[in-house]
TrEMBL record:
GO cellular component: nucleus
Keyword line: Receptor
PANTHER family (alphabetical): CONSTITUTIVE COACTIVATOR OF PEROXISOME PROLIFERATOR-ACTIVATED RECEPTOR GAMMA (PTHR15976:SF17)
Originating organism: Balearica regulorum gibbericeps (East African grey crowned-crane)
Signal peptide residues on this chain, from the entry's feature table: none
Coiled-coil parts of chain: none
Key word Cell wall biogenesis/degradation present: no
Domain of life: Eukaryota
GO biological process, one term: fat cell differentiation
Protein name as catalogued: Constitutive coactivator of peroxisome proliferator-activated receptor gamma
Length: 183
């Protein structure tokens, strides 16, 4: 019901579609199809999405999850039919928490459980203490960067430096300051 209400308010439409139809679509991309060194974002983030699906969807008899229909654009995918994706349980001590608990419960224990579940979806649960010490936007960026480095073997040290400079050096700069930067 909450997902439906948020969907009506143009929030969380993706979650609502997964919960109600078992389907998700991302039919646009800004990727260079001539650059075959880096896989498409749809493929890079698929393992994380599989964990997220298992958190969102309840398993049935025998622990099996319903398949999720993905309509994700990437080079070589003609989008003529959805890809059927199997949700995968993330590695969380004590198991995956109930979605209702994660969404509605209050308190510091639930906050920790939400954060550890989020990190587990991106295979980053071992860095929880270090990430909690950072401001939320910086921690989110570090999660994204760490996940990318784990998933994309072709990222170079220069790529890493550019990403780090983006979040640490450019944070809080005005448009005028950014326009005056020297190469």
């Amino acid at each position: 019901q909450l997902a439906k209400e948020q969907h009506i308010q143009s929030e969380n439409y993706t979650i609502f579609n997964i919960l109600s139809n078992g389907e998700i679509e991302c039919s646009n991309s800004l990727e260079d199809e001539c650059d075959t060194e880096i896989p498409g974002q749809a493929l890079i983030y698929r393992p994380a999405r599989q964990h997220i699906y298992s958190v969102l969807l309840e398993s049935g008899k025998g622990g099996a999850y319903p398949l999720v229909k993905e309509w994700f654009v990437y080079f070589g995918n003609p989008l003529q039919q959805p890809e059927l994706i199997q949700p995968v349980k993330p590695s969380i001590p004590g198991g995956t928490p109930n979605l209702k608990t994660l969404w509605f419960a209050k308190g510091p224990d639930v906050e920790r459980q939400r954060y550890s579940t989020f990190l587990a979806c991106f295979h980053l649960q071992d860095g929880m203490e270090e990430l909690q010490a950072l401001e939320a936007p910086v921690a989110a960026f570090c999660c994204l960067l760490a996940y990318l480095i784990m998933q994309v073997s072709s990222l170079s040290l220069e790529d890493l430096n550019a990403f780090v400079a983006l979040i640490l050096c450019l944070k809080g700069k005005s448009a005028a300051q950014l326009a005056g930067l020297q190469v």
